[in-house]
Write a structure and sequence with these properties.
The chain has about 110 residues and is an all-beta fold. It contains no helices and nine strands.
Amino acid sequence: MLLYGTDGYMSAIISIIDKTGGKPKHLAYCGPFEVEHDRVIHRVDMSSEAQLVGQAQTRLTVLNDGILTLTSSPSIYGGIKSKALLSWKRTKPGTGKSSSVIKRLPTS
């Protein structure tokens, strides 16, 4: 789940299934955000991962056919040479239905 508020704050809750061990990993964080050209910067005030608190998480953004794709490099869980794509589709008002897809990509 990804929320951007009109007050300039965001929150994210992400679950990833680890393909090697099959165990889920969960990440949640929130804080103020800002948009700069083709990037969004999340300034982490609170997180389930202590090392993210106080850090800026910069994501490249692409909006295509109603799907927002955020690219992070390196991936929080993938290591220094990793990259992750997180694709989000907006919830339809009143339905409570939303979807997201996360893909970990190799770096070149």
